[in-house]
Write a structure and sequence with these properties.
By secondary structure, the chain is an alpha/beta fold. 26% of the residues lie in helices and 18% in strands. Strands 5, 6, 9, 12, 13, 14 and 15 form a seven-stranded mixed sheet that branches. Strands 17-18-19-21-20-22-23 form a seven-stranded antiparallel sheet.
Length: 601
């Protein structure tokens, strides 16, 4: 997604350099003693034009947010064009429905009869997106000049640093639809909201729903309470966790602007108590209520500035209904356990010197559901605290276990929603750590049962985990394997021998469960179903513990299994990447086989 089109950026630079040239001409007419001051002004304009930091410059962006448009594209964009000539907006955001339910207005749009004067961003409202729009998004095509899709559940940071978090749609049940289309449908789940928790200090939060309790402590009058939308606790949780500077929502017949409010009763360690402004915009053309809101946004926050007039305490504390999670660990990670892009953060502090290279942020993490680039077509199921996805570049193929009745790779990843390098560091509020482990275990057992059922109890499973305090986004990888190899101890022996060959620490017959106070470890679950004379399943967990500075190969588990299965050429996942069509075929087959065992349905 090109958040700031090159032609827009180029024009901005041309405008600024044009202003600079005008001032240069003026310098020639000024006395010498004014020259230094004029040069300082020129430096500011040049730095601004190049998007560089200036020690004293405070760059403000002009934004305008619109409520439900409901397909009235020509009149709303004509109005924006008129306003733009006087205000020179940087961008517009549609907080509600851009398109109507009948979708007929898209004909007028793609006939070229609508002029969009400056970059405009939209998300999913309460209406499904038109299929023609979905097709363009799926093909990564330009939707329309100056029109950009934010995503339904995602985080977007513009090239100038404006951070926008979106959660579109209403609360709903995703079980009746194909997850490959889920991102375009007008519903979301509580798990979707949780997936956005890492986006602390967002500039703008967009939700189609109101947060529960937002009017607590407010003196803003509402003439008719029946016009107020329902509030949802998971939206309050989201707002309280990420602490946006602005939170926008929609209400068809009502404009509501709450007093600014503190997000906490006390300042944080940095001496800052984030202030949030909540606004809900009316729909365009349906009432005389305000349907758009224009404002200036400065990306620099001055903690010494006085609070705005009328600021209140947090609405959440009045209702005492919010689980205030501490900021989750935002150390991101690459999806398949590879180091992230190296980024030199400089040497301004000890921490920066010790952590010179940082992995990419959560918005770039391919385990995070908030990442707009996440391959959602690989996802099978989303629970309350974790989700299930088939692997990209699977070790096993559709042919590996076809003779056992498994005609798809069945290499599966079980991933927590929480941004955490290991289970032990998941915040412990409301037993989040134990709940995550329990649900992940439930996914593991469900997949084991599915594999056994579809293979006539001929296949068992191996599940492994790499838990490191400075590691990747924790996840479990599950791979089917002959139950005979498991039952006869050959799989366990292979792992122990490989560890010995590499001079790794020895495996212990111990399960660290959530791993609290256990340090770093590699955990392996071996499971085989009942078969023949064996009337009971075989289940065992062995764990290798190692020190923080120990050089443990992230490919250890896959390497051992590749040798056991005769798939050494598939040791590296990057060598096994499939086409999207192949991936979609595999997920369809997996979901069909797993449906009977999927507890999220």
């Amino acid at each position: 997604m090109h958040l700031w089109p090159s032609r827009v950026a180029t024009r901005a630079r041309q405008d600024l350099f044009g202003e600079t040239e005008h001032r240069l001409n003026a310098v020639q007419q000024q006395p010498v003693h004014k020259f230094a001051m004029t040069c300082k002004m020129l430096v500011f304009f040049i730095l601004h034009a190049l998007n560089q930091d200036s020690p004293t410059a405070v760059i403000r962006y002009k934004l305008i947010v619109i409520g439900d448009v409901n397909g009235q594209l020509h009149p709303i964009f004509s109005k924006l064009a008129t306003l733009h000539t006087k205000n020179n907006f940087n961008l517009a955001i549609i907080a509600g429905n851009l398109f109507s339910a009948d979708q007929a207005h898209t004909t007028d749009l793609f006939a070229g009869n609508v002029f969009i004067p400056f970059p405009t961003y939209f998300t999913v409202g309460s209406n499904p997106l038109p299929q023609i729009i979905i097709d363009k998004i799926e093909k990564n095509e330009e939707i329309y000049p100056n029109l950009y899709y934010l995503g339904k559940r995602c985080t977007t940071t513009t090239s100038d640093g404006v951070k926008i978090v979106t959660l579109g749609g209403k609360p709903g049940d995703p079980t009746a639809v194909d997850l490959s289309q889920e991102q375009y449908l007008p519903f979301h789940t509580v798990a979707d909201a949780k997936a956005l928790y890492s986006n602390v200090s967002a500039d703008i939060l967009l939700t189609n729903c109101w947060p529960a309790g937002i009017r607590n402590g407010s003196r803003v009058p509402v003439t008719d309470d029946s016009m107020l939308p329902a509030g949802y606790k998971h939206i309050s949780d989201l707002c309280a966790t990420i602490k946006p500077r602005y939170h926008f929502s929609v209400s068809p017949s009502l404009f509501f602007e709450r007093e600014p409010f503190y997000q906490d009763l006390i300042q944080n360690a940095s001496g800052i108590n984030q202030i949030t402004r909540f606004l809900s915009l009316a729909a365009y053309g349906t009432s005389k209520q305000k349907f758009m809101y224009a404002f200036n946004l400065s990306l620099s926050v001055n903690s010494s500035s006085p609070p705005p007039a009328g600021v209140t305490n947090p609405p959440w504390n009045f209702e005492q209904c919010i689980r205030k999670r501490p900021a989750l660990d935002v150390d991101p990670f690459s999806r398949y356990g590879q180091p992230g892009t190296k980024r030199n953060r400089g040497t301004h502090s000890r921490n920066q010197r010790e952590n010179k290279f940082q992995p990419p942020g959560p918005g770039e993490c391919f385990f995070c559901l908030s990442n707009p680039s996440l391959a959602t077509h690989l996802i099978s199921s989303i629970g309350e605290d974790s989700y299930l996805t088939i692997a990209k570049g699977p070790l096993t193929t559709s042919a590996t276990n076809a003779h056992f009745g498994i005609c798809f790779p069945a290499h599966v990843l079980i991933v927590p929603l929480a941004h955490s390098p290991n289970l032990a560091s998941i915040p412990e509020e409301e037993n989040a750590r134990e709940k995550t482990f329990t649900e992940m275990t439930r996914f593991r057992i469900s997949i084991q049962n599915m594999i056994a059922s579809n293979s006539g109890n001929k296949l068992g499973t191996i599940t492994y985990e790499i838990s490191k305090t400075n590691g990747v986004h924790i996840h479990w990888q599950l791979i089917p394997i002959s139950e005979k190899l498991v039952r006869e101890g050959l799989v366990e022996a292979a792992f122990r021998v490989e560890a010995d060959n590499l001079s790794y620490p020895a495996f212990l017959d111990r399960d660290p469960v959530v791993g609290l106070h256990e340090g770093n470890f590699f955990r392996l679950w071996l499971w085989a179903p009942p078969n023949g004379e064996k009337t009971e399943e075989t289940s065992k967990c062995i764990t290798m513990f190692f020190e923080q500075d120990f050089k443990f190969s992230l490919q250890f588990g896959r390497t051992v299994l590749a040798k056991l299965l005769g798939l050494e050429q598939r040791t590296q996942w990057r060598d096994c990447v499939q086409s999207e069509e192949e991936e979609k075929r595999d997920i369809r087959m997996f979901k069909a086989a797993f449906r009977e065992f999927d507890f999220t349905l």
